[in-house]
Amino acid sequence: MKIKVVVVDDSALIRSVMTEIINSQPDMEVVGTAPDPLVARELIKQTNPHVLTLDVEMPKMDGLDFLEKLMRLRPMPVVMVSSLTERGSEITMRALELGAVDFVQKPKISIQTGMRDYADLIADKIRAAAKARIRARTLPQAGAEGAAPLPQLRNPLMSSEKLIIVGASTGGTEAIREFLMQMPSDCPGILITQHMPEGFTRSFAKRLDSLCRISVCEAQGNERVLPGHAYIAPGHSHLLLARSGANYMTKLDTGEPVNRHRPSVDVLFRSAAQHAGKNAVGVILTGMGKDGAAGMLEMKAAGAYNFAQDEASCVVFGMPREAIAVGATHEVGALPALPGMVLGYLAQHGMRALRV
C-alpha cells in the first residue's frame, strides 16, 4: 500500500514541485494539495492521508495554529516545509515542539544536480514520518515541581573528566530537549549530533539554552568542553571530540557525509571512543537509519558505558534498534527515565573511573 500524502503550501509552484517529487517515488503518492489550512482541513477529511507536508508560513490561518489544532483534534504525522531564514527556523523549532515529526527546507526551483539528492531526502523523511509514533507533547519547565529527584553527582571533579555523548535523528529535537532539561547545572560536558541542516542548528541551540539549566550552544570548534555546557553539532560540519593536553576540545570537520549525514553520529561517537574511552557515556536517541550504531560499538570497546532509548518512547525506533542489535548498548530505557539512568550511572561509577 502506498503512503498517501497531502501537500499544503500557498505557492502553486512549490505544490507542483513537491507533487512531482513525491509521485516519482514507487511507494508514495500525493492524494491532494491545498493552498491554505482551511482547504487542507477538508482534504484531510476526504482523503485520510498517512502524512501531511505543511508550509510553516501560511495565509488565512498561521501554520503553527493549524498544526496545534490538528495535533489536538486529529493527530497525524506532519513534515514541515521551512524557508531557510531565521524566522523560518524559529517557527520550525516551535512546530517540532507542537508535534511535527520532522522538517525539510523548501525545494529550490531551479534545475540543478542536487535535485535528485533533495528528492531522496524528502522521500526518506516522508517514509520515516509514516512509521512514526505520534504522542502527546509536553513542555515541562526546568526543575518543575513534582518531578522525581535525580541522582546527585556529589563529586565536583568528576564533571570535568566525564563526558556525555548524544546522537539522534528523526524526533530527536524533542527527545534532546526532554533529556537536557533534566540535566543539572554541574553535569559533565555534553556533545550532541542531531541530523539537521545548516541554518537550523543555531535556532535549535538557542531554544534549548532558553529552556535548560545548563548552557547550550552551537559548537564553533576549538572550544574547551566545560561542565554544565552542551555543544550542538552545526548543520554544516561533523562534530568531533579532541584533546589538548588535559582538556577536552570540540573539533569541526567539513569532510564527506558519513551514512549520508553531515553531521554524522558515527563520527562523533568514534572520536569519543578515541579520546575519552571509559570517561564517556553514550546516549542514542530516536531516529531513522543506523547512523551511530558502529561508532557506539567502538565506544563500548573503548570502555564507555552506553544507553539507548526504548522502542515505546521513540518517534522512530531505527538508530537505537541498530545500536542494540550490534551489542553496542548496556542499558535501554524510556526517554523520561534516561536522564536519571545516566546521572545514576555517573554518581555510582564516576569516582571509581577517576581513580583508574
Automatic annotation (TrEMBL):
Record flagged with keyword Transferase: yes
Domain CheB-type methylesterase, residue spans: 157-349
Pfam families according to UniProt: CheB_methylest, Response_reg
Residue numbers bearing the 4-aspartylphosphate modification: D55
UniProt keyword annotations, A-Z: Chemotaxis, Cytoplasm, Hydrolase, Methyltransferase, Phosphoprotein, Transferase
Domain Response regulatory, first and last residues per copy: 4-121
Record: active site: S169, H195, D291
Record PTM text: Phosphorylated by CheA. Phosphorylation of the N-terminal regulatory domain activates the methylesterase activity.
Subcellular location: Cytoplasm
An example Gene Ontology molecular-function term: methyltransferase activity
Predominant location category: cytoplasm
Keyword Cytoplasm attached: yes
HAMAP family linked to this entry: CheB_chemtxs (MF_00099)
Function in brief: Involved in chemotaxis. Part of a chemotaxis signal transduction system that modulates chemotaxis in response to various stimuli. Catalyzes the demethylation of specific methylglutamate residues introduced into the chemoreceptors (methyl-accepting chemotaxis proteins or MCP) by CheR. Also mediates the irreversible deamidation of specific glutamine residues to glutamic acid.
Record-stated family: Belongs to the CheB family.
Protein name as annotated: Protein-glutamate methylesterase/protein-glutamine glutaminase
Organism placement in taxonomy: Bacteria, Pseudomonadati, Pseudomonadota, Betaproteobacteria, Burkholderiales
Annotated gene: cheB
